[in-house]
Amino acid sequence: MSIVLPGEKIPAQHVNLKLGPGLSQTSDASTANSPSIVSTRAGTVNHSSNKSRWWIESNSRRYIPATQEPVIGVITQRQGEGYRVDIASAHNANLDGLAFEGATKRNKPNLKVGNLVYARVSLAHKDMDPELECFDAQTHKAEGFGELKNGFLVKCSMRMCRQLLDPNHFLLPLLGGLFPLEVAIGLNGRVWINSKEPKQIIAIARALEATDPDGGGLNELGVKAFLDKIDH
């Protein structure tokens, strides 16, 4: 990882390159054949293991929407045929009532203020409010997106949420071996968890907070010792 400032060029190249938060593609006459990737914020450069996805990690507390990213939103208002949704960004997002698997004008979810939804950012533009969809872009199936019922919402650092989406990260397999576990991870600093009993949900939430780099920052051994002290 390297630290960059706004405007610096990033050596991001891949046949299926996807840019995450903090990166932008620029093109001009001199770079028409090979557009440049530049940073739009200060932070550390990160990429996936196969280098297909790149992003800038910073200590920002406010989520900056990026297309295709999963987020957990809170319904704040019903408007017309859709909803306004708080996704922890500068502006609330729009969610169309038909943006769910199999939804029609006669058959669509009836969400209320305060309900949680797991959604995908379908539009992210600096001059427009973000837009959300509750289905997979390729299959148009729910694929886990939609209303999140019951459970508990944990707020984490955005860095922690990205780590949890890494299949090689230790925490979720560790917790899944101890408790019945349902989880939805939003890259906007929110994690929804559910389990069989309230005390198990509490233990999972505390383990998440203890592992967060902005919290306890515990490693696998530390989390195991931490969980041993909790009556689960």
From TrEMBL:
Recorded GO CC terms: cytoplasmic exosome (RNase complex); nuclear exosome (RNase complex); nucleolus
Cell location: Nucleus, Nucleolus
Domain K Homology positions: 151-198
Name under which the protein is recorded: Ribosomal RNA-processing protein 40
Region entry Disordered, spans: 24-43
Annotated Exosome complex exonuclease Rrp40 N-terminal domain residues: 17-62
Taxonomy of the source species: Eukaryota, Fungi, Dikarya, Basidiomycota, Agaricomycotina
One GO process term, biological-process aspect: poly(A)-dependent snoRNA 3'-end processing
UniProt-listed PANTHER family: EXOSOME COMPLEX COMPONENT RRP40 (PTHR21321:SF1), PNAS-3 RELATED (PTHR21321)
Protein family: Belongs to the RRP40 family.
Listed transmembrane segments: none
Top-rank taxon: Eukaryota
Main location: nucleus
UniProt GO molecular function: RNA binding
Keywords: Exosome, RNA-binding, rRNA processing
Keyword Transmembrane helix: no
Record InterPro entries: Exosome_RNA_bind1/RRP40/RRP4, KH_dom_type_1, KH_dom_type_1_sf, NA-bd_OB-fold, Rrp40_N_euk, Rrp40_S1
Keyword Iron (UniProt): no
Matches recorded under Pfam families: KH_6 (PF15985), Rrp40_N (PF18311), RRP40_S1 (PF21262)
